[in-house]
Amino acid sequence: MKTIYKTIYMLTLTTIFSQNTSAQTPVVKGIEHIGITVPDMKTALPFFKDILGFTPVTEIGPFELDDAWREKYKIHSGAQVEKIVSLRAGDGANIELFEYKSPKGNKEVPYGDDLGWNHTAFYTDDINNSVKYLKSKGITVLSDPNVSTAGPTAGESWVYFLAPWGAQFELVSYPNGKAYEKENPQTKLWSPKLAGESFAITSTTKITATNEVEKLLQLHLATWGEKNVEKRTKNFKLIYTEDVNIVDPFFILNGTSDLNPFIDDLQKKHPGFKFSLAKPIETHNNIARLFWQFGPESKPDTITGQDVFVIENNKIKSLYIFIDGLKK
């Protein structure tokens, strides 16, 4: 039993690497989970599950630890694991909660300047309403939302709040992006904002992209194949700027108010047709190009073309549609 536990436990304490034997260097693909020691699950689970809305997925324990294990992983002598619970935390890293039974473990919440102190920040679309919600649940919020007005993080709002046992967590929000993003840097900070929007979509096109621009463009393509008008309209707000300029061989639109009737007509004229990628998406700076095909499963490339995009603040500012072989 100890051998089985050690195998499971070690996986929870180590980062999962994608091995590349030719490069001989392990490549970290991302944060798989964040581990948090809590006083007890009776206190912690209602906080994460009922207030923050996270979903418990797995639970293991209790387990006995031997002296060699405790010494190796810097755990107080006599400590035992009562329970480990893993939760799905929206569209970010998973949260893994540890409850120990320990006669020597520190029961005081560390100070911010203590070595090893850390905090976890959660993204929210509306920080003011989120603060009101937390307060309504009896959660202590340490201040009004702070707004960054200068520097690379301008446009971000943030605030700290306390778990019932005193640990600090943070809410952050930047629905219009941060200032540094407008400079179109080669690398942007990862954000659950766009990930949450794309993974929430139900469509006929599977979204498998690994960066924000590709997810945005695949979401655009999926939305043109979406038959539910309500879902499609919701997606428009996630994909396009309010004044998006859409140039098609047959029309020019400013905004998306007249886009639904065109998509409805397109789907009615071509029943059973689906949009799909014909080639990999191409991007440079804030410009991107998507090669698409439109057709039934028996001939998915019945109609082909490409969309050219101008991206601004993680949304499509301009869209130019080209259809192969079209003669007007």
Automatic annotation (TrEMBL):
One of its GO terms (biological process) is L-methylmalonyl-CoA metabolic process. Keywords: Metal-binding. Residues 30-174 form the VOC domain. It comes from the Bacteria. GO terms for molecular function: metal ion binding; methylmalonyl-CoA epimerase activity. It holds the Pfam family Glyoxalase_4. PROSITE patterns: VOC. Signal peptide: none annotated. PANTHER family: BLR8189 PROTEIN, METHYLMALONYL-COA EPIMERASE. This is VOC domain-containing protein. It comes from Flavobacterium panici. The lineage of its organism: Bacteria, Pseudomonadati, Bacteroidota, Flavobacteriia, Flavobacteriales.
